[in-house]
Amino acid sequence: MIGSSKLKRIDTKSTDTLIGASTICEGKIMSEASLRIEGQMNGDIECAGDITIGENAVVQSNIHARDVIVAGKVKGNVYTKGKLIVTSSGVLIGNIDVRSFIIEEGGIFQGSSAMNAAAVQNDKSGGGKVIDAKAHKQQKSEQQAASGGN
After folding, report:
1. In angstroms, rounded to a whole number, what is the distance separating the alpha carbons of residues 94 and 70?
2. Closest Cα partner for 33 from 23, 45, 21?
3. Is 74 exposed, middle or buried (0-12, 13-18, 19+ CB in 10 A)?
4. What is the model's pTM?
5. Bridge-partner residues for 72, per DSSP?
6. SS3 of 137, please?
7. FRET partner for 50 with CA separation of 20 to 30 A, picked from 41, 65, 99, 125?
8. In angstroms, how far is CA 79 from the centroid of its own chain?
9. Which DSSP helix (H) or strand (E) runs through 63?
10. pLDDT for 74-118, tens place per residue?
11. For the residues of 7-28, what is the DSSP string, one character each?
12. Is the distance from CB of 92 to CB of 113 less than 8 angstroms?
């Protein structure tokens, strides 16, 4: 029902968004639930859930998430609160800052790695934390209202 006062609880373990194999997506993605990419993605990703990069996916992104599985190709830095898995078909070119790192035989990783309990908070590019998309949207609306709607 539109305008319902009931708040929906988001399950960050379920996949909420799928970028299909024939899709090319450009821009920043912010999600509270998990994300699966099978197509192409160019732009940063901030996700409170997990991110799965499919075998045929090509991603050029800085990724912030709880857990990340790379079975396709990723060029960019990866920051997780949990684990990063590069499967036997996965290619990751970029730096990582994770709590746990697993690379299967045949998987490729080129970059530097840091592993610690507060991995996501070490991003030097401004923020580096998994954000609350609703709070971000609300904050942006309040800023626009304060500036006269521009």
Report:
1. 12
2. 45
3. buried
4. 0.71
5. none
6. helix
7. 125
8. 8
9. strand 63-65
10. 999 999 999 999 999 999 999 999 999 999 999 999 999 998 765
11. PPPP-TTSEEEEE-TT-EEES-
12. no
